[in-house]
Amino acid sequence: MNNKIKCLLLIFSGLYATVVQADNYLLTMSQDDKACQRLYQLFNGDLMTNGKLALEEHEEFNWLKWDQPYFIIRQKSELEPNFEDELLSENEYEQEYASYTKYFYKGAFFDVDNNGVDEFISFERRGPHTYQNRAYDNIYIYKKDSYKRLRGAKSDQQFSPAIGYVGRFTNSYVLKEYPIKRKTVYTTGAISHSWPNLSDPYIRPLLLDKTYYIASFGNVDTRITGQEFIFNQSIDEKNAIAIVKFIPSYDAEKIENQPRLLSTGQPSNETQDICYFVKTQAIQQGVGDD
Predict the structure, then answer these.
(1) d(CA 239, CA 288)
(2) Of 174, 109, 168, 99, nearest to 144 (Cα)?
(3) pLDDT tens-place string over residues 51-70
(4) HSE (CB half, 13 Å, CA atoms) of 177?
(5) pLDDT for 231
């Protein structure tokens, strides 16, 4: 065997080892082959080229500007907000005054439910100052004309039908179509199964071929624990991605009585799961028990 062939074989074997050892994404569920395959190529292409996701380089994720800032207020106890109060403390999320606290949000207008009419979408980043230093995003969905009512509103009005609130994606999303069940054995010996959650997600609105989706980059229920889980602060440290369509219910009574259920797709179909991607490392560790 001549030296040129040996060199080519060494290069090939090195590339093969790199590909085999790389923590790629597996497409574990697809309800739309065209959209899911396109994203499969995009995500794994980033890993192959950059060693990490580069969403800012892709028009599918780089079309939206959160250019509608606003704030809401929460009064302290029975004290009415005094807008001449001295500022006590502040950070990028809030300002605290003696009689009230001001909370800051970003917003944008786009047609999140693909019904031909824009909604007002509010974005909130929950950073390492929160519980267990967990970082995640929230988005809240309102009817288009809610923006003028939200600006300066009191916090107890934020999720009310009167404001125009429709639904949310928060720090946990139930994967309704996930093919692996999680088994729980109680002390009584009873066994139950439940679909895993996608926890602590970073949320990115996604636009593919004039259709709007929500992409959540989070963690499925693996055996990752301790500091590795607690300080999971970047998209690339998350081990799963869910691509979801938002299909809201405008039932005011349901929104009033069951606001937290809207992010789970229950009790009716406010969300439709389109694609799931899970990192090979998470599958190897065992996402759950059959």
Answers:
(1) 14
(2) 109
(3) 999 999 999 999 999 999 99
(4) 17
(5) 54
For 49, counting Cβ atoms within 10 Å of its Cβ (0-12 exposed, 13-18 middle, 19+ buried), the class is exposed
Q: What angle do CA 175, 157, 217 make, to 5 degrees?
A: 25
Round to whole Å and give the CA distance between 235 and 250: 32
Tokens of 115: 């019904």
Per the DSSP assignment, residues forming a β-bridge with 243 are: 215, 275
CA distance 109 to 64: 9
Q: Are 36 and 30 in contact (CB under 8 A)?
A: yes
Q: What is the pLDDT of residue 151?
A: 92
Distance, in Å, from the CA atom of 142 to the CA atom of 122, rounded to the nearest integer, reads 8
Q: Does an H or E element contain 275, and which?
A: strand 271-279
Pairing of strands 100-110, 70-75: antiparallel
Residues of the chain with pLDDT under 70: 1-22, 127-133, 179-195, 221-232, 249-269, 282-290
Token readout for 112 is 């999140």
Phi, psi for 200 (deg, rounded to 5): 50, 55
Q: Which amino acid is at 15?
A: L
CB 89 within 8 A of CB 98: no
Cβ-count burial 119-129 (b if 16+ within 10 Å, e if not): bbbbbbebeee
